[in-house]
Every structure is written in C-alpha cells, then in structure tokens.
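Changelog note: in this version the structure field was regenerated for every chain. One regenerated record is shown below for reference.
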Amino acid sequence: MTEPKRSSGRLEHIDWMRGLACVLMFQTHCYDSWLSPEARKSAVFAWSQLGGTLPAPLFIFLAGISVALVTERLREKGIARNAIARQTILRGAEVFGLGVLFRVQEFVLGFRSAPWTDLLRVDVLNILGVSMALSGGMCWVTAGAVGPLQAKTEMVRRERNAGMIGGLAVAAAISMLTPPLWTTWRPSFLRWPLESYINGVHIYGTPQPWLFPLFPWSAFAFAGLAVGFFLFREVARRREARTYLGVGLAGAAVCGLSIGLDALPIRLYAVYDYWHSAPSFFLMRCGVLLVILALAYFWCRWGLPSRVFSPLVQLGKTSLLVYWAHIDFVYGGLSILPKRRCSVAQATVGLLIIFVAMLAVSLLRTWWKERRRSRGGVPNAVPA
C-alpha cells in the first residue's frame, strides 16, 4: 500500500489542509475588508464569514498534529525527551515571538489610528505559539511518566499512547473549563492583558469571541496532538486508508454527539453559549476537522494533488508567511482595493489577485529554502 506523497519529510494532506485554511482566510478577510455596507447584506458575504470560522481551528489543530509528528520521529531516532521538548517548546516560543512582532508591525503601520492596546491583543499567532509550547511540555511530562524501558520500540509505543491519552484529557479539560472562565469563574483579579490570555476580554470587560484566548483555542492543539499520535501508530501506518476512513466516520459521529448534547434539557453551566464557549460546540468543530482530515487524505492520495501541482499544498508549506504577508494588502494601508467601498465582483477580483500573489510569494520562499538547503542550510524545523 503506497503512502501519501511526502516532501522534505512533510505529509502532503497536512499541507493541503493548511493551504485550505489559507484560502478560507483570504476570502474571509478580503470580503470583510472591501465589501460596501450594501454588499455586506449579500449571501456571498454571509457564506464567506461562515467559511471564516474554520481557518483558526485548522491552523491550531494542525500545529498539534505537527508536534506529534516531529516528536514521534525524534523518539524513533532515540533522541532524549529533554531535547525533544526543548525543540518543540522553542519552536512554540518562536511562533509566539513572531505573533508579538506582527502586532508591533501592525501598530507601526497604523500608528495614527491604531490604539496602543492593540499591541497586547491576543491573536491567533500568539495562541498558536503558546499552544505548541504547551503541547511540547505535555509530551515531556507524559514521556517521563512512562519511565525507562530497555526496548526502544516498546518505549516509543508507550510514550505515544501516553501522549495520545494526555492530549485528549487536556483538550477535554480546557473545553470543559471554558464556559465558567468566560462567565462565573472569570479571573478578573488579573490585569486585562493577562486575563485576555485566559478568556479574551482584551479592554472590553467581557470575553470577545473574535479573539483567541487559551480557553478554548488551545484545546484544538491538544486534540490535534492526540490525533497525530493515533495516526502514527504502527497499525495506522500499515492500514492508512482504513484508519483515515475511520477518522472521517468518527468525525461525523462527534458532530452528531455535539447536536445531541446541545438538545439535552440538562445544563451543566449557569451560562450556556453553544456558538462560542460550550464544550458541545468544541466537539462540533473537532468533528468537522476530523472529516476534513479524512477527505484531505483521500483527495491527496487519489485526487488531483497526486498527479499535478497543488496550489493548496504549496500555500500550506509556507502558511505562516502568507498569513503575515496578505494582511496589510487586505486590511492595512497597502490595501489593493478601497476598504468598505467595493461590490462583490470587485472584491472577488481582488481576492484572486491576493491568491495569485500569495502563491507567488510561497513559491519564492520554497525556492529560496531549497537553495539554502542544497548549499548546506538548516534542516526543517517544527512546522507551524
């Protein structure tokens, strides 16, 4: 049984999912920034915003899978758990630092209009970096709980299983704690920059669903970590197609479970908000992610990406770069179209321009990295 195509140790369907997240992000941002008030009443805008609910969970979920992938490969090479944790935690810290740098850049470019509090806003890059670091730390803890074993393969298997169970447990705990931390258990004794990392209050006094606090967003990373360890088991590797089919069916079942839990008359929380903080909504989004993961695997194995160049796979290889690069050409002072003044047709043309431009940037970045590598450059780091 042939495996999905790999590039520089990367899984094609994981990159394809990142590329999908990039495209969904592009269309959401473009229509949101450029459409006029009248055009924002259209079905196109409504559907674009619905699609915009997927990129952040996809990016964070896939970061968890990437941490599992890198951890698994380093364990198989016999690398010590301290060294593995150091690499993954430092990569998380690097992404967090880039998130802070991104906020500084946006503040400088919008100096006359941007409030200084935007420097401390909890954005997706911030929480992505923190989640990767926490995932690496949890892998270190669970590997230590296994203890030393003489057989390396048995130790790797037990550490994998411990990481899978730990990831599921932490994801469940984060999602269960989210509703009270947003309402009745709010850590309001903290200054708002710190509380915002818990529940996303920012400067508004109440949690904002458009921000990315640890609760619930980091739960997607731990869910991805558990799924990653599940997929890298020996049995799953031997029977990949069946495994991914099972993942897709499990995702559909999780979506059904979410709907069933929401319909129950019993409420565990004093304040119940299905669409923002409820654990049942977290289940729904996890179910959707699992279905997309399965579909991406089969599409990349037997669909067009297995035979021709895939723009989504290419974008996925440089997702962090294109996330950074497109913002100022859509929302910032370098916007290629006038903001809040365009028709759907004009914004769609602008979206196509952004897509082609970001694809060109991605190809240039890949060419430059491969050129460095051919000259003895630095090997691949943990993917983001």
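Spot check on this record: The mean pLDDT is 91. The first helix runs from residue 12 to 34.
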